[in-house]
Amino acid sequence: MTKLFMACLFTLTMLCSTWVHAEDDTATEQQNLIEQTQINLSTDIQKSSAIETLTLKPISYHAEFVAYGKVLNIQSLLALRHRYLLALTDQRSSQARFQQSEQNINRQQDLYSSGVTSKRSLQEQQAQWQSNHAQVDAAHYQSTAITDEALLLWGKELTNWALSNDHSKLDAFLSGRQKLIQITLPSHHHLANTIRTIDVEVSGNRSKAHKAEFISAATHTELVAQGESYFFQSSDKNLLPGMAISAWIPEQSSAMTGFIIPKSALIWYMDQALVYIKTTETTFSRLVLSHYTPTADGYFVPDTLSTNQHLVITGAQMLLSEELRGQIPKEDDD
Asked: Are 41 and 151 a contacting pair, CB within 8 Å?
């Protein structure tokens, strides 16, 4: 019985040892696959496979942070403009009546001095003059109140756009050529004074983002974010009032030097980001990217790559397939 037990134990130990070695062999094969970086392809095969390369040139890049906002309805801004125009019309009308009453009272005073008219007529004209003067003041106060209200709600820049005689910038919103956006930053971030454009997109897809131009600081912020808030305008036709949007804003930190690569250049295998570099006319090498940041044009890579390297931008997946095919062991002839 003891001999039978020892035999079973020995068999089990051998099986476990074989399984561990098999795992080690698999891991070794995977590691060897990652380390394999050389591929040889003739120029004819490269042409037939439509392999394209891009010569890398360094650029300066600012890191970004994400903020959120919404597309605004400008109806209340338009209402302020209409009220302001009516107030101006009323003010001009009151001013005209006041000027007329001034002329009338001067004439009545001359007539009264000459004894042509009575004192009662002069007093009635003076009362009319005072009434017209009060109407001028009231119209002025009304237009001033509308201006103050616009400043409190929209700030100086948008108030000027809405209430000035030159309404071309406001017309851009009315025609749909521009959309008004309010972006609220996270509480621990600030907008650098040099920033005049940011990138915005409705679905949160950075690669589909459109530019938005800075207008001014907003006079109020959102209850949720509690950060600085700003007005921007965008010509993106897909934006509609009420839509929530994402915004990508450059950090105030110093720029980094690196490379922008197209999305087509980067592929993934075994949870690693890979690119291929053409090293000679017929040789390609694979590089693993440890750091990369999505941008509107692809990815920013701060390291690993070098200036004037020939990056494969079309055909990287085919090169990986060719490399994997070369890893398959050949079967024995017998």
From this structure: no
Token code pair at residue 47? 């042409």
The helix/strand/coil state of 26 is helix
Residue 229 · residue 222 · CB < 8 Å: yes
Report field, pTM of the whole predicted structure over 0.70: no
- In angstroms, the CA 94 to CA 247 distance is 48
Residue type, 74: I
Q: From CA 86, how far away is CA 142, in angstroms rounded? A: 10
Q: What are phi and psi of 190, to 5 degrees?
A: -135, 155
List Cβ neighbours of 74 (8 Å cut-off, separation of 6 or more): 170, 173, 174, 180, 241
Give 122's contacts (C-beta < 8 A, 6+ positions apart).
Answer: 105, 108, 109, 111, 112
- Provide the phi-psi class of 255: left if phi over 0, else alpha when psi is between -120 and 50, else beta: beta
Q: What is the pLDDT of residues 243-292, one digit of tens each?
A: 999 999 988 777 889 999 999 999 999 999 999 999 999 999 999 999 99
SS3 203: coil
Eight-state DSSP code of residue 116: S
Number of residues in the chain: 334
CA atoms of 174 and 168, how far apart (whole Å):
10
